[in-house]
Amino acid sequence: METMHTETQEYINGMAPGPLTREIPECMRNKYTLIQSIFDLTVTLLTAIGYLIQGIYRSLFRRTKKDLKGQIALITGGGGGLGSLIALRLARLGCVVVLWDINKQGLEDTVKLVKGIGGKCFGYVVDLAAREDIYRVADQVKREVGCVSLLVNNAGVVSGQLLLDTPDHLIQRTFDVNIIAHFWTVKAFIPDMIESNNGHIVTIASMAGHVGVPKLVDYCASKSAACGFHEALKVELESKGVDGVHTSLICPYFIRATGMFEEVQSRIVPQLNSNDVADRVVYAIRTNENVAVIPSYLRILLPFKWIVPWASVSEIIRSMVTDAMPGSPVPQADRKMQADVPKINGKVESRPMTLIPPARHDRHV
Ligand SMILES: NC(=O)c1ccc[n+]([C@@H]2O[C@H](COP(=O)([O-])OP(=O)(O)OC[C@H]3O[C@@H](n4cnc5c(N)ncnc54)[C@H](O)[C@@H]3O)[C@@H](O)[C@H]2O)c1
Fold it and tell me: What is the pTM of this model?
């Protein structure tokens, strides 16, 4: 066996300085690191306090809203639910709206609605679970419509079953649509935004990205990843000095009257009105807001999750959301009681994904 270099062995044993420490002159080693650390910490804290004061000032006094006229806005999942409501609002503000959805009928309906209010709108059928489809249609949009300057990553799916009852392909699809697709859409459109130093990436995540909920293990994990995606992308753009490309993270609680959580049993915090959420999203875009938690008072409660004992957190979550998906299949032990659950070849059928918008869409602008 090859014998380890003595210096390496001493470093591993903590008896000699490592390669980085060795770069600092011997006489300066201890003093330099301490003084430098204090200096760095002071500067960082003072800068952070400055931004804190600026943030408080901005939230107390009305923020200036940016003009979106003439911007090309692409909304994924724009063929239904929240996406279609955001589309109507952006069109009314003068954006050229591009909608992506897997649901052709929903897409055609929304394009008609947007055109009906005098908006300019283009619809493309895209499967966001397919990377090649995303890149192919992104090129088509660039050729046929122009450079996208506002990207709203809104499409989402939920499988809504207990983890062990969720088929692997639905878990995979939840991640493909709810987060992996964000990588491909951002990679497709952000280079033009960076080049022109003008753009905005909106990530529609969820409160479920901050709080775990039974029957939503894959959904919560994918939304948590979306929150991380937003934050890391934001810091990356800032570290590169790109100040004209903004990012916003939207974290709503359960919304009424979209296709996703129609039957959720939610208590304490009422379900949100889909029009209010769409208004809030557009406000966040126009004010370049970093994070919009909806309703906003939940933002104050979130840090308590890390402070209070876990039992309290769990109790609150389970009281608030008694059943996220009442219609979904129940655990193995309870299945015999569910005579009305649809079956294929004797197996309980998985809940269909939210690909078709519900009949009662509330599309007032
Ligand atoms: N509804 C809620 O309670 C709620 C709460 C918090 C966050 N959200 C998030 O808001 C976003 C919008 O949700 P919604 O309530 O409007 O749901 P929705 O089901 O009504 O709309 C989702 C849209 O995405 C489309 N879509 C799904 N899979 C797709 C795919 N593979 N390719 C292309 N399009 C696809 C659907 O066709 C649909 O039009 C989602 O990201 C969702 O996770 C929803």
Answer: 0.81
